[in-house]
Amino acid sequence: MATENSSTNGSSIEKSNLDKDFLDLVDKAKIKAAVRKLDLTITPIMTMFYLLSFLDRANIGNARVAGLQKDLRMTDHQYSIAVTTTYVDSEIEVLYINRPYILSEVPSNLILRKIGPNIMMPTILTIWGIIVTLQGFVTNYQGLIACRFFLGLIEGPMFPGIVLYLSQFYTREELSLRIAYFFSSASLSGAFSGLLAAAIDNMEGVGGKAAWSWIFILEGLFSFLFGLITFFLVPATPRDSKFLTEEQKEIVVQRLERDRPFVSPLDKFSFRQVLASAASPHVIIIFMIYFMGGANLYGLALFLPSIVNQLGYSPTRTQLLSVGPFAAGFLVTILGAYFSDKLKQRTIPLLACLAIATAGYSTYLGSHDKHTSYGSLFLMVSGIYGTTPIIAAWLSNNSEPYYRRATSIGLGFVATNSGGILSTWRYPTKEGPKFRQTNIMNLTFTLVMALLAVINAAMLHNANKRKEREREKILAPYAADDEKDGGTRAWVELGDRHPDFRYVL
């Protein structure tokens, strides 16, 4: 995608040639240095954003082990409602709560450019830090529900917003690994949360509060303080970066314009672009993949401490044993995304991760020993967590221009969190530790995700071939005497359907 400062004059081909000349004159070492500077100044901040987001959302699992459910006298049904409320509406006796999380994801992506990511994202982090802290002061089920509702409302825009934001700094072939850098913090947050919760368990009774209260208070305060700091660290665009030199800014911008020949000033918001995204076959397929992946991902994120606990380990040992699977997930997530970018391929690395998850679920269902069952969690977490950056990059890579991409990414995470809603109802304590029906569902979902990935790759391959065959026919409605290829109008209106745009497989 071109930047806001790009000129709208001239055809996309002419513009591409100018960019090519500029970049060909730049030493490759300087290009690598510019990308490395982004990796050191943009990606770490986004990683912290998502680490805190996932930590603050999933720490309710650690709080449950530390006594939350018992102290608030909640049933399993009420606990599931408390978790579900973060993602969507729940019926609570006569009280109906609106849809907080999933309904904020698409609109927030559509207004991100207007408000500015440098304002919107730090504001989100600061406010949710306050809400997480307040969770530590709740004294009943109703208070917890209220906090979880507002937490979902505020946190909803974060993941899709980060993916959209990074797509404005990195080329398509670099995106999967950068998404992995920040998303791997989700698995890292699971490991960190376990260690932190184990330490905070020793604060039971401090200040007259239970250990689970301190989990929320301390983690929430940290998020709040970090949110305030990031108002000074997050640039709106590459040209606004305080860390890049002028030459590096130009390098980054020109690389993006070569990678995505779309002219931003012509890419105005319209519901037509939103509908075009929602009707794209590859977006629909990824939507289904994301739903099933979300059911697996959030089930593990929210209930893994409870699963380990029910295998027969003590609460403190459970917190520590929860670290291992998430640490393994961190490594596999990075490796999977690295090879996905290196190979410029999404399908094969995605299938490899799904094969690991399949092995994990199969082992867990077939094992009768608690140590083997615990070991299989490493495969389950690694495989499922490893899929997410690859899927997110695949969706972003194949959706253009900006507002179509913003919609596609938002819809993808609506699907993910809709799957998360399903997972919150699939782990009742009475069915543990095997949760046989749930894990059969998870295994089935994993296999179907693999099938859909193959179908999507085949469909995109055929679409690329069709573009080659029918290039003139596709561009004919946009052709003019001075621009036989339709110029910028063709790029903006056709978006990823432009015959010169190659879908990533």
UniProtKB/TrEMBL annotation:
GO CC entries: membrane
Main location: membrane
UniProt cross-references to InterPro entries, sorted A to Z: MFS, MFS_dom, MFS_trans_sf
Domain of life: Eukaryota
Cellular localisation: Membrane
Keywords: Membrane, Transmembrane, Transmembrane helix, Transport
Record keyword Nucleotide-binding present: no
Bilayer topology term: Multi-pass membrane protein
Gene Ontology MF terms: transmembrane transporter activity
Residues spanning the membrane: 119-137, 143-167, 179-200, 212-234, 283-308, 320-340, 347-365, 377-396, 408-428, 440-461
Domain Major facilitator superfamily (MFS) profile residues, every copy: 42-465
Identification of the protein by name: Major facilitator superfamily (MFS) profile domain-containing protein
Annotated organism of origin: Gymnopilus dilepis
